[in-house]
TrEMBL record:
Protein name listed in UniProt: ATP/GTP-binding protein
Keyword Kinase on entry: no
Cofactor(s) the record lists: Mg(2+)
One Gene Ontology term of the molecular function aspect: catalytic activity
Transmembrane intervals: none
Length: 319
């Protein structure tokens, strides 16, 4: 498991278009529930001209954020850029320059054995010249992984390639939208991603391969309004957590508070985690603080470490 809090701190990762001109005021005047993270995406651009225009808007956004931070104190989320390709990384560095110091990391879409080496090489070049580290959030190519004949080899090959850059892999992102679409499936508000057996199998394999060494961010839940959407999102997050995810991609600011509340640590879990990590009790198997379950440090140590990191970022529920 990861031993630094930064890997557990993405929480709700909100995607917005890179040319969104309103987001800067939303950040400065703290209109969203905090904490959260923010991903600028170029997915909506259909050609080079539109991408160039979106990049110019994003430069103005980051520059305005840099100036505003000098004038007043406000919460700045971790900022990410979802690149268009391997070549886009070097292009952004040349165009954005020192403004990339405001960026926490790059999201690397369609990450696969065919492009992993190039992605990592480009990021090594960037980090060799920037004053602060820029992390990566690889997003495995879920469509390529549908091939059961090659899935396991591909997953372990990707993990092996990432191991050369492990400290810079902030999270591994899991996306399932294209997979659901390929099966002509769209879940209802009261259904969750794990009820689609092929998708659940894919998620399970990704988690099994990566979760022992990396933190994984769960796929998005598409509903943010209407009857039952809060309950549907919360139910899926509970499945996310049980399957080893920490945090979730979100599609609307209204989802942020639900993710944050869901990842708050219960006071019982927090007390148990402290007990498990207590040097004086480290080898003791004993009942927990309210005598409802057994704490066994040898088995629960990694869980306890994660609970402490989550408590620092999301807080502790008083029950």
């Amino acid at each position: 498991m990861k031993d630094s809090g930064i890997y557990y701190s993405l929480g709700a990762l909100l995607y917005i278009a890179a040319d969104n001109t309103n987001i800067i005021d939303d950040i400065i005047f703290e209109k969203f529930n905090i904490p959260f993270s923010l991903a600028f995406s170029f997915d909506m651009t259909s050609n080079d001209a539109e991408a160039d225009k979106a990049e110019n808007v994003l430069i103005k956004t980051l520059d305005k954020l840099f100036v505003a931070k000098k004038e007043r104190n406000f919460y700045i989320p971790k900022l990410f850029i979802r690149v268009l390709s391997t070549a886009h990384i070097a292009h952004l560095y040349k165009k954005f320059g020192s403004l990339l110091d405001l960026i926490t990391g790059f999201i690397l879409p369609d990450f696969s054995i065919s492009n992993a080496d190039v992605y990592i090489y480009e990021m090594q070049r960037i980090n060799s010249v920037l004053s602060t580290p820029v992390y990566i959030l690889p997003e495995p190519d879920s469509m390529a992984l549908l091939n059961l004949k090659t899935r396991y080899n591909d997953l372990y090959s990707i993990k092996e390639k990432l191991s050369t850059y492990e400290d810079y892999v902030l999270n591994v992102l899991v996306s399932t939208g294209n997979v659901l679409n390929s099966f002509c499936v769209r879940r209802k508000v009261d259904e969750n991603i794990y009820q689609s057996k092929p998708v659940a199998s894919l998620i399970s394999d990704i988690v099994t391969v990566f979760a022992t060494d990396y933190i994984l961010l769960a796929p998005a839940f598409e509903y943010y309004a209407g009857i039952g959407w809060e309950e549907g999102l919360l139910r899926e997050i509970e499945f996310d957590k049980m399957n080893g995810f920490v945090g979730k991609t979100v599609v609307h600011p209204k989802q942020i508070s639900i993710v944050n509340d869901a990842y708050k640590v219960s006071s019982i879990d927090y007390d148990d985690a402290q007990s498990v990590l207590d040097d004086k009790k480290i080898y003791q198997v004993c009942a927990n603080v309210n005598d409802t379950r057994i704490n066994e440090p040898r088995i629960h140590y990694s869980w306890a470490m994660q609970i402490i990191f989550l408590a620092k970022y999301f807080g502790v529920k008083k029950y």
